[in-house]
Design a protein that fits this description.
- By secondary structure, the protein is of the alpha/beta class.
- The protein folds into 2 domains: about 60 residues; about 200 residues, Vaccinia Virus protein VP39 (Rossmann fold, 3-Layer(aba) Sandwich), CATH 3.40.50.
- Strands 5-4-3-6-7-9-8 form a 7-stranded mixed sheet, with helices on both faces.
- A hairpin with a 2-residue loop joins strand 1 and strand 2.
- Helix 2 runs antiparallel to helix 4 and helix 6 packs parallel to helix 7.
- The protein is elongated and about 70 Å long.
């Protein structure tokens, strides 16, 4: 019978041969879940013998990862801002790049005791809205999505994080069914040009295409649509926070300026790419 250490080594080697990003980390995280143990158990018990059920589950996890299914989709959870978020085939995985939007909001609205009203357009897992509600204890918010399945995931996350009493979710195509005005409007719309699909990492094929690819050659059709709607829902002192892709900030700026908004500040992600723009009404 193979030991824990041998299983881990075999999986790591297979992941490396398949050019899986972070092979050591992925092999260990999947093993931790299969065993329902933490990192310390893995390190302190290299001779542990897996049960048949543990071995079967770990083998299944590894087979799926070798097909480039992300660890988050295999386990059904992804951490964002140190919070756990359920994720499924119907939702875009929360990504570290999007934490740039959270940092931007916290800087622009430093008083975390105010009862801000927040609108999250294209909420997906609800990670942006729910993270902000976890930081602004008196705030309330609405998460909007066109996918009923995504709204179900976001609702589950709100319940898990004990935020359901301050979060509502609305089935709508962007702002079509939105009512009211907001201090903070935040959105991570689809922005990848469809022509780029074949050049991206295989893991993205497990995310819903509608959350990734924009319905125009440049990928920015959602920004043009939103730019015509957001003014109807922004309070006079309110601000809009938009995520976009690499080298898209100039195009997004022109779209927003043409709709009557002014850029306030740009924020870079950990890779030093301009990832978030903040706008307000003129």
């Amino acid at each position: 019978m193979q030991s824990l250490h041998e299983f881990l080594k075999t999986a790591t080697t297979a992941f490396k041969k398949a050019a899986i990003p972070s092979p050591d980390l992925d092999a260990r995280i999947l093993l931790e879940d299969a065993l329902q143990e933490d990192k310390s158990f893995i390190l302190l018990n290299p001779s542990y013998t897996l049960t048949d059920s543990e071995k079967s589950l770990y083998d299944n996890y590894c087979e799926r990862r070798l097909k480039r299914e992300p660890v988050s989709k295999i386990l059904g959870e992804k951490e964002f801002w140190s919070l756990p978020f359920k994720t499924t085939k119907d939702t875009l995985d929360p990504r570290p790049d999007s934490e740039t939007l959270i940092e931007a909001v916290l800087e622009q609205f430093p008083n975390q005791s105010k009862p801000y009203k927040i609108l999250d357009l294209g909420t997906g897992t609800g990670c942006l809205l729910l993270t902000l509600l976890s930081e602004y204890k008196k705030a309330t918010g609405i998460g909007v999505d066109f996918s009923q399945e995504a709204l179900g995931v976001a609702t589950d996350n709100a319940i898990t994080l004990n935020l359901k009493d301050r979060a509502n979710f609305l089935h709508s195509n962007w702002c079509e069914k939105v009512d009211g005005h907001f201090d903070i409007i935040i959105s991570n719309p689809p922005y990848i040009p469809p022509s780029h699909e074949t050049t991206l990492e295989p893991e993205l094929s497990f995310d819903p295409k509608t959350a990734l690819y924009g319905n125009s050659q440049d990928g920015l059709e959602a920004y043009r649509l939103l730019s015509q709607q957001l003014g109807n829902h922004l309070l006079p002192h309110g601000k809009i926070f938009l995520e976009f892709g690499k080298e898209q900030h100039d195009e997004v700026k022109e779209i927003m300026i043409s709709a009557g908004f002014s850029p306030l500040k740009w924020y870079k992600d950990l890779g030093q790419i301009i990832r978030c723009g903040v706008f307000h009404g003129c």
